[in-house]
Amino acid sequence: MDIIVLGVLEFNSIAVGIKALDGIVKAASVKVIDARTICPGKFVVLFTGNVAAVDASLTAGKEIGEGYIVDELFIPNLHSQI
């Protein structure tokens, strides 16, 4: 059974969210599951990969989006039935 690792960042600026998305995929080898606006003016990025890659990408996204992050989530061992 594969270990499922999940990272999520929510931004209160679409432009900053897109810029952070660029940094997230360039920081480490992660797969973007979803990246989109969720309501007027907000942007969310959901991505997966191995633990180190997701952690590195999450850190990169937080640095780029500093001051614009609404919420963040890092789950290093998500149950496969979720």
UniProtKB/TrEMBL annotation:
Residues 5-82 form the BMC domain. GO terms for cellular component: bacterial microcompartment. SMART domains: BMC. This is BMC domain-containing protein. It comes from marine sediment metagenome.
